[in-house]
Each structure stands twice: as structure tokens, then as C-alpha cells.
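Researcher: Let's try something more involved. This one mixes different molecule types, so please make sure each is placed in the same coordinate frame as the others.
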Amino acid sequence: MLSNFDFNVILSSLPYLFGQGMVFTVTLTAMAAVGGVVIGTLLAMARLSSVPGLSHVAKGYVELCRSLPLVLVIFWFYFLVPYIGAYVTGASTPIQVGAFPSALITFMAFEAAYFSEIMRAGIQSIPKGQTGAALALGMNYWQTMANVVLPQAFRNMLPLLLTQTVVLFQDTSLVYVLSLTDFMGAASKVAQRDGRLVEMYIFAAIVYFVICFTASFLVRRLQRRVAIIR
Amino acid sequence: MNYNWNWRIFFDASPEGNGTYLDMLLSGLMWTIATALCSWFIAFFLGSLIGVLRTLPSKTANGIGTAYVELFRNVPLLVQMFLWYFVLPEVVPTQLGDAIKQMPDAPFYTAVVCLGFFTASRVAEQVRAGIQSLPRGQGMAGTAMGFTVYQTYRYVLLPNAYRIILPPMTSEFLNNLKNTSVALTIGLLELTARARSMQEFSFQVFEAFTAATLLYVIINLVVVTAATYLERAVAIPGQR
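Model: All components are placed in one shared frame. Result:
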């Protein structure tokens, strides 16, 4: 029962939970979101390009990522990244990659698939006439994208990109399966050390709820503000 | 690169002593499918109920629906899994808690309930969107025919709404299926967990994960194909 609910175990572990755990979670989320959006935009451009084969490769990658559970992908990259690293650097044995870089690469590559679907919709929402006008002015493909299409696509899709980032923030808790010390990992380590699972998991749930609820609320407000009235 | 590929590993006996590694992965697949189907059953009915609550004119019903969706959407699935598995048996009366802890296959039942409640919040959003996308006249027509609110939903609004939201519901079903892998953290021996233990026993990392990947892709294709047929089968003749 909740009669012996111990607040002290939460209070005394606060510096560890936030100083280490939350910093890890937020850093991972922010970097993975930025990387994911960049790779996702490139994937979306590849998928919409007329270069033979390129759109199929991009489509295949996105569909594959979207049909796999994140936990499996985390395991995949955890074992694959050392081999990729060895291949890139030309080393003969798998190289050691820290836990954080490994997790970061995983989330960037995985979330890029989801971000690319959002960016694809964003690029397609820009009328064809604008691209045509830019090309008629003598801009090349990259100039058209950078100066005309993408700035508008980002603006239109900003609420969706941020919503996906909130999902990403929740998903980072799954690095628990690699025993990393993100916020959830820190909470569960304290919980197991002190035998205080009830207190720590309820506290973790409340913290996640408050952060995600506030973030979703702010995104909804932003959505009203940035919406372009046509 | 010096990785030793050995694709015949699947036919080697697994150290658990009851079959090959392939049998191990397939048993994981069965648990994944069983968990996904059972939790979808809860998610579909509970989600429909919550979704309907959010479209009713009553403020209380609306509030309950919104609170449910916000609560279950803003807490990570992993945390919810731990709350159901570790916290729930401790906060209910001692006898009931002990009974839950001694239940055989506890991870399975916990995962089913947890995923059911989690996915219900997503299903609810789809159902609400589907109902709200219908012309207002449909509900009014139901009332004009003398239907009660229940009858209006049962015979007019829901049959139409479900047909509209079939594609997003398919992806929710697939999300639910993929989310079963989170249950490995509470000890459910589903497909990803089995691939992981095969990797630990045999050290053939990439073979194990490739097999799991292929199995997930195959289930995805089967579900998407089935959904396409379902969509065609339930389409109202003459519409679109």
C-alpha cells in the first residue's frame, strides 16, 4: 500500500536524476532531433527526386525503419556501429564506440525515417508553380530548395516536427535496454539500489507527464500562431 | 571485417534444450502476435468508447475522455509498463497484490493490459477524428429518425467513421504490434527478446537480428495486405 511512501528517497536522488539522467535525456533528444530533421529532409528530397533508383532507396529505408520496433533497432545499431566505425576508419577490428554516440546514431537514423515523412508532406504542400518560378529565374535545384521550398516547408511543418520531437523525447527512455543512465535509467537504478520501485517509477511518470504535457500544450499554441492563412 | 557469418546457426540446437534457434525465434513470434492481438482487443473497444466520449455534447464525458488521452499519451510506454508491472501490485490491497505477483505468465498479462490501455488513447484520437469528419447532418438525421444517442452512434456514426479511419487504424495496429517489444523489459519472451537471447547464446549477432527483422517485415506486409482487402470488403458500394 501507499502508506509507507517515502519522499526522502526521491529528494535525496534529485541531483542524480536531473544532473545526470535528465541532462542525458535532453541532450540526446535535442541532438537526435536536429540530426534526424537534417537526415530526414535529405531523405525526403531523395524520395521526391527524379534521379533513377534514388527514390527507391530512400523509400526502402523509410519503410524498413517504420516497420521495425525501436527496441530492435537500438540493439541493431548497438552491435552494428562498431563494425561501421571499423569500416570507415579502416581498422581491422570493431572499434569501441561509447554508449552515448551509439544511442545518438541510433536515434538520428531511426527518427530520420519519421521526420522524412513529415518533410515530404511539407515539400509537397508547396505549390509546383513556386519551384517552376524559381527554376525560371535561373536557380538550380539546390538554390530552389534552400531559398524557396524548404523555408516554407519547415514553417508549415514546424508543429508536426515538434510533436514528433516530443515522441522522440519519450522514446529515448528505451535506451534503458542498453543500461544507459538517461532519466528513466537513473530512476530505475535508484529504485533497484534502494528497493523503492513504487516511489521512483511514480515520480518518473509524473516528471515525464509534466514535461510532455507542457510541451504539447506549447506546440498547440505555436500551431495557431504560425499557421499561414491562405 | 572479421565477422564470421554462419547462417546455418538457425538449425543448431538452442541451449534451452527444446528445439533449434529457429524454433526459439518462432516461439517469440507467437508471443508477439498473441500479445498484439489481445492488447488490440482492449485498445479497440476502450479506445472507441473514449473516442465517443470526446464527441458527446456532455462536458463531463468530454473531460473524462480528454484526461484519459492526455494521461496515456504523455507518459512513455516503458514507464507505463513498469507502473503496471512493478508498482500496481504494491499499491493495491496486499492480498490482491500477492495474487497478481504469483500469476503464471504475469509479463504477458501485464503487457496486454498496458499496451491495451496505451494504444486505446491513440485509437480514441482516431475514432474522434473519424466521427468529427462526418457531416453534422448524419447525427441530426439519426435524431430525426427517433434514434437514441446510443442507436445514432451504433447504426449511423460509428459504421461510417470506422470505414474512414481504417488506414490510420492499420498503422495504429502496426504500432501496437511493434510496441510489444517494449515488454521485453518486464521479461516477456517476444520476438526481439528471443533474437537478443539467441545473440547472447550463439554470438551470431547479425544473423539473429536479420531473422527478427525479416519476421517483423513479413508480419507488416501481411497486415497491410489484409487491411487492403478489408478496406475493399467493407467499402460501401457507390461511395467514391
